[in-house]
Amino acid sequence: xxxxxxxxxxxxxxxxxxxxxxxxxxxxxxxxxxxxxxxxxxxxxxxxxxxxxxxxxxxxxxxxxxxxxxxxxxxxxxxxxxxxxxxxxxxxxxxxxxxxxxxxxxxxxxxxxxxxxxxxxxxxxxxxxxxxxxxxxxxxxxxxxxxxxxxxxxxxxxxxxxxxxxxxxxxxxxxxxxxxxxxxxxxxxxxxxxxxxxxxxxxxxxxxxxxxxxxxxxxxxxxxxxxxxxxxxxxxxxxxxxxxxxxxxxxxxxxxxxxxxxxxxxxxxxxxxxxxxxxxxxxxxxxxxxxxxxxxxxxxxxxxxxxxxxxxxxxxxxxxxxxxxxxxxxxxxxxxxxxxxxxxxxxxxxxxxxxxxxxxxxxxxxxxxxxxxxxxxxxxxxxxxxxxxxxxxxxxxxxxxxxxxxxxxxxxxxxxxxxxxxxxxxxxxxxxxxxxxxxxxxxxxxxxxxxxxxxxxxxxxxxxxxxxxxxxxxxx
Length: 476
Hints:
By secondary structure, the protein is α/β, with parallel strands linked by helices. It has 3 domains: about 1-90, Rossmann fold (3-Layer(aba) Sandwich), CATH 3.40.50.720; about 100-320, UDP-N-acetylmuramoyl-L-alanine:D-glutamate ligase, CATH 3.40.1190.10; about 330-470, Mur ligase, C-terminal domain (Protein-Tyrosine Phosphatase, Chain A, Alpha-Beta Complex), CATH 3.90.190.20. Helix content is about 30%, strand content about 20%. It has helices at about 10-20, 40-45, 75-85, 90-100, 115-125, 210-225, 240-245, 295-310, 315-320, 350-365, 380, 390, 415-420, 430-440, 460-470; strands spanning about 1-5, 25-30, 50, 65, 90, 105-110, 135, 145-150, 170-175, 180, 185, 195-200, 230-235, 250-255, 265-270, 275-280, 280-285, 330-335, 340-345, 370-375, 400, 425-430, 450. A 7-stranded mixed beta sheet has the order 8-7-9-6-12-13-14, sandwiched between helices. The longest helix is centred in the middle third of the chain and has 16 residues, at about 295-310.
């Protein structure tokens, strides 16, 4: 089958394109902006890309158009597809029907931690010899790719493991964002998960959800799709998730927490960032790893619980996590100059920002943290959660907040007044070069510069490193 993908350069749709190609389909696609790294990744897979949405693309005569949620009414190619009555389907529906129908789907849902938890879970299954397929909204460094249809069965990590048929299991990041302009249900209802992690639930996506109750409704749609023989892995700390489950639950359910021994799964923090895992009061072992932060421990225990549902012993999952390397753009070190470390992180919600900074504080102790934030997500730009942002930066010694003044990434509210409660500890900027100059002027050896954004941020990481090198006459 020849499929033509509208909006192919997004993380989800780009992953879909790779999976479709691996499944043997002819794949082409288009997007408003076709540029590296996604364009390079797709072209290396033999996928032809077209920039823009000109109706002339109908001449490709594909069997089916797969529509990303970046496409809306008024898009010239979409309008031509509708006018001619051509076959089209949303990306999530296509994946659900064509790739996931015969697989044991493990779906990871939540406001935060979906990418990291999905990566942990996929790696645990890989290490156990299950060779899962996966579609993740980031690049797990253990794999080097964000999507694959399946891996090769065999030995992993140098140890003999039981192997399974390569097509049996599929891990997917289950996003609550809407499916397409013609399907306003969340993407995850199309995946028909047998194992579903409900990691957390807070207000987000202010551009499509009017309130937290609307998101709870979508999460309950997910719960309704899990079969009786399926299992929900639920964060017991979240009142919002308790609200979701109270609406009805027809599947097995296991709860996890960060220390409540009344839940099925919990952990106890040990020295450094190691933690002991318990299942129904019985110790399963100690996770010894390099990651930090309470959020990552919660992600890990959810992944261990989900893996157990498909037969992976918790002890083996714990062994796998000791070899987990995290995800690109999750506390990723980008460079160091004169003892000043620059780290990139995807945090883009007040809770994620706070937990990331708290974890880093445990790691660096009394060392200074310079936090650099770009409030770039739709929810951030709309100002729906702006009042929570100052407190989320409290663990930083100094904070620098950037908001573009013009163009599609322009911030829609006043930065200075929002962050004024932080006083001299915060500086707000609207010109990238001025932001970089301010950071570099303040930075001293021993500092950690933590950059947080869900976008490219104008390449600010390398700009900071270059400016630091010039300042200290050092070599990266």
